[in-house]
Structures are given as C-alpha cells and as structure tokens.
Amino acid sequence: MTAADAAVPAPRHPVPDPLLLLPLRQRIIEQQLGVRALHLHRAGHDELSHRFAQDTAENIYSVSKTVTALAVGIAAHEGLLDAEDLLVDHLPAPADGYGSGMEQVRLRHLLTMTSGSPVLGFLDEQREHPDLSSLFLATDLVADPGARWEYSNGSTLLLSRVLTERTGQSMRDWLMPRLFEPLGILNPQWHTTRDGVTWGATGLHLKSGQLARIGQLLLQRGQHEGTQLVPPAWIDALHAEEAWVATGDPEPESARYGYGIWQCTPSGAWRADGALGQFLLVLPEQQAVLTITSRLEGRSGAEVLRAVWEELLPLL
Questions:
Q1: Are 69 and 214 in contact (CB under 8 A)?
Q2: pLDDT tens across 225-248, in order?
Q3: Which site from 12, 70, 217, 306 is most exposed, i.e. has the minimal number of CB atoms within 10 Å?
Q4: CATH number given to 57-206
C-alpha cells in the first residue's frame, strides 16, 4: 500500500435504512431525554419515524416563530410587505405616539430579534395586556435597531400583527390556504392575544407528523409535492450569511440567530427550535431533515442535539 492509498479513508458501508434511528433511539432511552417522536426525511429515501409516546397535537413553542417567518416570506412574495420596510409604515401609532427610536425599526429587525426595544425582555409577563402591539410601539428603544440581539417573543408578535393589518385576517387564517391546507394540516390551533392577534412566537399546536411536513418544506426550499408554497429565495434568506446575528450565548448551538431560525454546529446545518425539545434540524449536506418532538423536563435541548450529532449524523 502506498502512502497515497493510506491517506484515502476506507469506504463506509451504508447502514440499512431500518437501523438508522436505532443508536439515537437507544441513547434517548438510556439518558431519558424525554423525546416523544422522531421523523427522518432524506431525499430519495422513504421517511423513517419512531414514536415513544402517543402522537397528539402539542404546542411546538418557538418553532412557531419559524412558521411566522415563512408567513412573512409568502406575504413578501405577494407584494404585501418587504423585510426592509419600516415597522411604523405598517402599524398605526399608539394613542401616546411611538416610542423614541421606533421609527427606525425595520421588519428584518423583528425577524432577527434586534429591534432594540426593552419590551422584548418582559413581554411574556404582559400577556393579559389588552393591546400588546401598542405597548411595544409606545416604548422607547434602549439600543439602536440592529445593534444588539435579545430573545424576543414580542418581535414575532409584531410580525403577526403586521400581517393582520395587511391582510385583514389573523395570520393563522391567512395561512390556511397558503401553507397549512396544502400540507394536509386542516385545523391547527394557534393561541391569540386578547385582541385576537395570532401570537406568532409560540402557541401553534401540531402533531409530530404535521410538524415533519414543515421540516420537509424547509429542506425542499419551500416546495411540497411539486407546488412552491414558499419562495425558494426566502428559504435561503432565513439562513443566509448576512442574516445571522451573534447572540452572545456561550452555548455553541445558540451562538447565531437568523430569520426565525438558529445555526447548528455541524457544517451547513440550521434549525427551528422550540422549548422542551421541539426541533426541525435541516441538514443540507446530507439532504436530510430530522423532526423531533419532546417533553424535556429539567434537561437541556443541547443534550438532544448532541445525541443527534453523535449517534445519527455519522450514519447519514
């Protein structure tokens, strides 16, 4: 054997499809990771799935933000808005006027959670406020838009409110013929604010198989069964290099945020991410997407991601 031959890695024997999920399933059970279901979709292969619990419609939490980001892309394609639009061009001023600096906030700042509004940090505590949108709009900024990142349910709520202003419908109802019905999701429940605005940031309830169809849509750049539901350029924009912002989080899996999605540590990978372990893991290099629904209690979602990277990714 020559030195050149030794440098070439031995060919990997492909793992039969029915066995692909087995190492990950075993680790989930051994480490009690609280996963409820797995769905693996790969281009050119049959879908693989495994359920650890009964499949019922559950809150997908902040994966809802990714669905809202898809709605923004559809609306942009229909000419209703643009990511560079100023927020104040879409929403009327509150009774006491806009907060200082609010006139500089663009829709892309809401998509990336960089609006600079202090409301972002405590909006969850104000859920019973009769007009959350006006609360957001009337508050002075504490940073220039785009200058810093802060996790924000309020940002996504405002995007939902913009869509309602532009379409005359709740975001959930507007999405029915454009996204949900084509995906076979016929009556999804989505929490609303007291004034009837789809919450947007959380509260969408889906079964694991329904969520998996949204994952496939992301992998297939917005296409479902030959129909383009979301423009491919918008799917690309969600995780484009210019979209990423640094969050300041020391956890590598949480270091960069895009348009309603997170960057993953494996090369090229990105994800939708919800509380208690809800994930859509898009793996472009492997032409795969893994959907995970969980009920994590006292555990970190990073443990589930680590199990995927170590137990499944090398087999794909």
A1: no
A2: 999 999 999 999 999 999 999 999
A3: 12
A4: 3.40.710.10
